[in-house]
Amino acid sequence: MISKEVTLRTQFYDLDPMNIVWHGNYLRYLEQARAALFSEIGYGYREMEASGFAWPIVDLSIKYVRPLRLSQDFIVRATLTEYENRICILYRVFDAATREVLTKARSVQVAVSIKTGDTVEISPAFLRTDGTQLGIYEYIGPDASLDLESQDYGIDTANWKLVSATNDTVYQFMGPSGTNVNLSTGQLFDSNSNVIATVSPGYFDVGYWRPVLGAQLQSSTDDQGNPTGGSPSGGSTRRSTSSSRAPVTRSSSSTGSLFSRSGN
Q1: Staple partner for 135: which of 24, 40, 107, 129, CB 3.0–4.6 Å?
Q2: What angle do CA 115, 57, 48 make, to 5 degrees?
Q3: 39 backbone φψ class: left, alpha, beta (φ>0; ψ -120 to 50)
Q4: What is the distance between the alpha carbons of residues 155 and 264, in angstroms, rounded to a whole number?
Q5: DSSP assignment, residue 221?
């Protein structure tokens, strides 16, 4: 995931009659961080226009934790978490001195054709996982010490394989045994329904999901011989029906392979 931080200071005109920052001004702070993030990845508003697509916000949520006050220095961090068919950004507002979290937010943007005004399912060309920038790759070569910044991920197919989730593919959950998964939120629960962790809800999270080959699929049964829909290896399985979620990088997987994000 890619993040960008901006440091700001509240101004007198940002305050409401209660002498705290008016809640509507936080949208402007988020916009500044979002614009800095887009500039960081080379897809600012001029680049958007040149590509023929606008990316309006279609969903926005904010949780105000603690108020900002006059002349307070604060940091807004924007993190790109999804970029296939839509852009999802998570935000955190921190006090600059204490790093205390003051506000949390999330925005979702979709592509709209500037020419037709129609919403389309498309990713910015440089963000697509097509062997160039921001792809997730699994190292399949021999044991070696690697300089990850010098790798040709999209060209060196003998050593690197693109990792992606595919529609109508069955995925096996590779997380802790006995764990229940909320597939919408990515939360993991123990047997007492306590949340123990939160992972990427998409099947791209290679530390928790792996594609199951068709030849490995068999009908599992219970003690009475009734089909259960489980996998022969004992892990729970799930069929992918959407490719709108973006991959995330994980440092290791259940197989011990090295995964890396291309930054070319």
Answers
A1: 129
A2: 45
A3: alpha
A4: 11
A5: B
Q: How far out from the chain centre does Cα 189 lie?
A: 21
Average pLDDT over residues 131-140: 56
Q: What is the mean pLDDT of the chain?
A: 73
CA distance readout (Å), 117 to 31, 87, 121: 23, 18, 13
| Chain Cα centroid distance, residue 223 | 40
Domains and CATH numbers, the chain: 2-127 (3.10.129.10)
Taking the C-alpha atoms of residue 53 and residue 51, their distance in angstroms, rounded to an integer, is: 6
Q: What is the pTM of this model?
A: 0.51
Distance of alpha carbon 94 from the chain centroid: 21
Question: Is residue 176 over pLDDT 80?
Answer: no
Q: Is the pLDDT of residue 51 over 50?
A: yes
Q: Which of 55, 136, 66, 134 is nearest to 103 (CA)?
A: 66
Tell me: pLDDT of 225 over 70: no
More confident residue, 156 or 190: 190
Tokens read off for 122: 């498309």
Buried b / exposed e over 220-242, threshold 16 CB at 10 Å, is eeeeeeeeeebbeeebebbebee
pLDDT at 259: 45
User: Could you tell me where the DSSP H helices lie in 146-204?
Assistant: none
